[in-house]
């Protein structure tokens, strides 16, 4: 029996940023051109890409609105793919496409359900970072797992590196799934709820470094998890917010009161709960001066 070619079918792609854009690019390269794209906020890069590739773009949508539900019912897509889209789908919308809806999640499941999974994995000191493709259901990241992919992240790499690497692997998860779907060989794995952990979406206010409670390795992981493209972990210096953007674990042992700044040759050391950590890049917001030896970084 001849295997049907899925690229003849209509696919809905819900996205906002680079994750979804890389998926779009990979689908087009594989001759999946019957695509409709949905965004819920303005994104010039995605808009330009869709225009250049003659893709239908639907913007400023409310996915659970009656208007959108009716639209999906009328178009009858084969599959919906969610890639970094910020709105939560209701159960009716999830089930409307012929093959349902799949979601690209930036964490292994069920251990990293919820928000900011890449950031949390780095904060937790994971050297193997996981991402997942799941079949969506009415729960938050509770659907059956289609595939999980792990990649290595060294202690010298940060959240920007993690996003870049993950965005290279996300398209392969989708293409692998479509290949299996084409051959009717998809195997779904139910999540083990006893291992489930929910993590909240991180906000900038969550980025305060507590020198007296965090050891040097914890501070280092915290900083690299929150640096560019995010605002950065922070502390306070003379009442001004200091963004700590890059640190380094050093072999030399510097000890003392947590938060104490030590000038060591051309670099700054700050004492953590166990020992000192090197500050390689920082910004003091609204202050033109530099950190000074003998002063302190504080909680506010």
Outline of the structure:
This protein has 300 residues and is α/β, with parallel strands linked by helices.
Description:
This protein has helices at residues 18-29, 44-52, 66-75, 91-95, 117-123, 159-182, 216-226; strands at 11-15, 35-38, 56-58, 79-83, 101-105, 113-114, 128-135, 145-152, 198-199, 233-237, 240-248, 261-264, 267-271, 276-284. It starts with 10 loop residues before the first strand and ends in a 16-residue tail after the last strand. The protein is built from 7 helices and 14 strands. It is α/β, with parallel strands linked by helices. The chain is 26% helix and 25% strand. The radius of gyration is 23 Å and the shape is elongated. Strands 3-2-1-4-5-7-8 form a 7-stranded mixed sheet. Strands 10-11-14-13-12 form a 5-stranded antiparallel sheet. The chain has a two-stranded parallel ribbon with strand order 6-9. Helix 1 (18-29) packs parallel to helix 6 (159-182) and helix 5 runs antiparallel to helix 7.
